[in-house]
Amino acid sequence: MATTFWIVILVLAVLLATTTATWLGSPALSRQQRSWIRRVIGFPFTVVLMLVLAACGRATSERTVRKLAGSPEALKARQEAELASRDVIAVWAAETPLRLGLVLLEDVCVGGSATELFLPTGSDRYKIKYMMSVAAYFGADPRRMADTIDGVLSAGDRTGLRVPFNHEFHYARTVVDYYRGKTGDPQGPGTGEPTRLSRGTILTFSWDQVRSGNTGQLIEEPGPCSPP
Question: Which residue, 63, 62, 58, 59, is CA-closest to 112?
Fold first, then answer.
């Protein structure tokens, strides 16, 4: 609705400018008539232009972003998100064969953009956007990959969404069979050792490659904390 409004205003402004140029360029008009038309039409054109410029809100300033990010509402939301993430990690640590070693949590607040008249992305509909990412690093015996992943699937059978990988996940069962030596590469011949299980974009379960003869791809080490 808002985008349609801005487009209508812009179209009116363009039409008004086109009409003004046409009238002022007509040879049938005297200099006095042109001056009068310029004053009469120029005023509403200026008003429309000012309305368009005023309607185009500016991007959220860094000062406002910092102020809103430190507000009680933002701090409460951050705490709730962190506690929910730690609850999930606690389930993984308690219910799976994995041993918890490190939790890396990063939260970021970014400001909204100026009003988007064309090709809107939605970033002009908020003052700030809050994002949190959590990475939990676990340890496991590389010689027991089949038992470890199978244990994760068994935990998913019991806990549901807290561990969203279970034995109903066909590809995950294929990965277990791969490590037990019952099948070939899970993603097809020549694709090599798998490195992850994913369910959407919310949670990914990744591990080091441990089979000899493969690339030896390892989980990326945690980076340094971002500056405050």
Answer: 59
> How far, in Å, CA of 74 to CA of 123, rounded?
18
Could you read off the pLDDT of 132-164 as tens digits, one per residue?
Answer: 999 999 999 999 999 999 999 999 999 888 899
DSSP readout, 12-63?
HHHHHHHHHHHHHT-TTS-HHHHHHHHHHHHHHHHHHHHHHHHHSPPPPPHH
Burial 72-102 (b: 16+ CB within 10 A, else e): eebeeebeebeeebeebbebbeebbbbeeee
Amino acid symbol at 1 = M
Closest by Cα among 225, 228, 11 to 117: 11
User: pTM value?
Assistant: 0.68
Report residue 142: phi and psi, to 5°: -65, -15
Of 6, 7, 51, 45, residue with least CA distance to 23? 45
CA distance 24 to 227: 59
